[in-house]
Amino acid sequence: MGPQDIALAIIGAVFKNGYVKNKVMEFVGPGIKSMTTDYRNGVDVMTTETTCLTSVWCTDDDTKAYLAKHGRADDYRELKPADVTYYDGLVYVDLSTVKPMIALPFHPSNAFEIDELNANLGDILREVEKEAARLTEGKDIEFSLTDKITPKGLQVQQGIIAGCAGGTYTNVMAAAHILKGAQCGQGEFTLDVYPSSQPVFMDLLAKGAISDLMATGAIVKTAFCGPCFGAGDTPANNALSIRHATRNFPNREGSKPGAGQLSAVALMDARSIAATAANGGILTSAEKYADDYEVLEYNYDDSSYRARIYNGFGKAEPEDKLIYGPNIKDWPEQEALAQNILLRVCSKIMDKVTTTDELIPSGETSSYRSNPLGLAEFTLSRRDPGYVQRAKDVRALEKARLAGEAQSDEALKNALGKVKNILPDVDEKTIEIGSVIYCVKPGDGSAREQAASCQRVLGGLANICSEYATKRYRSNVMNWGMLPFQMKNEPAFEIGDYILVPNVLDAMDGDMQSIKAYVLGDEVEEIELYIAPMTEDEKKIVKAGCLINFNRKN
Fold it and tell me: Which parts of 135-263 are beta strand (E)?
């Protein structure tokens, strides 16, 4: 059993019912002592997929030794519950009952014991195919998992052990042990291994694990997060890839359903991936290879860092100028929030959940991480390709307003005419114009702020949803100066409609539980929005236009 097995068992139990949503998960109990700190890290990195806010672990002598090995002995603090401690709930994990797991497409919570899957391949895989058909409705995409069922079992095309979740020292050592003396085979299955850091890579070399892996036919590559977000080892169309990584969303790992390409990524522990590789790519539980192997102690050597990386902490050299390449751009200026805002709906997504990978894809977009407007070109590109141009059109209208230019857009002029009936005493030139997206439940997945910032630099003023998948995404929405609206009813608007939200600054000074807004269609329809509680600083940030503006003033 590996850390990913424990993590997937927990995610499968708590994600769908929201049991730990936006809560702090505290890991306590005797089971912790059976795990090294490196092993615990493999569990902890996956807690994001439960939708918890964050996680805390009890510390012990192993934690202390781990920090000391990394030159951080003084940072150790004892963390443990008080003698009397109250919790909102309990997730009880009996480690002796956890078996090797697999999370099938298209979410880490779609978790099964590998033995259960192998015993019911047809029935379970057909359900995944149905979900794929729903995700790709209207697109000519070939996708099948049942075609990979063979007399020997389920044939996998690719295995990946990588990144912060899979590439840790403990995981790669365990995988190398299972594979020692075996072969990945000369068939369609391939195995790639990415150690999580250069020091880990160096010690794996010293221990002989890299040689053992390469002798099996595995390809070992330098430390890189690429496979996780689609910048390396993108699986082939209609291929089944098993990965010790963090997520398997439909728009992740380079998969592009909107462009006619869909891969099947399943999450597994490195140990079961190694077992599958040793079995020629036939899905295999690591239990088949269970023995009394103990991972050798890790030796940390940071010479690769000391030889190359400049450590300037506390040693500022202000005379040295930052070098700006052609693809490094400053953040566009953002204006403060106006009292009255006019929102144009630029995307409406009715999926049960919208992930941060859909809001701003990873992969090729990483080249633009220092270019806010360049990165924004990819916003919702794999889910709603028309969004960016619609948002740009709205941003152009707001720029014209700020420049004092007469508005020529007929739809806007029609909307402003209806605004006059609602706010007869308000000068239309003071009404801020921006875009808005509606999603049922946005923000599942990573905490990447670009999921919000890309909307903002395109002129986004708000999100409207039924609920936010995570607190971290809602926080990013606010930090980028957008209003985190919610509504209880079904959305009575479509893409292209204008929504007037009058007196929004006044509403933010109230309880925000009933905010009147008006859909300016053929007929004006009043709707009710609300905003969940915000801190005083969060209100100031949104009113200022974004966190950057807020910090400049404070």
Answer: 149-150, 153-154, 158-161, 190-193, 219-220, 240-244
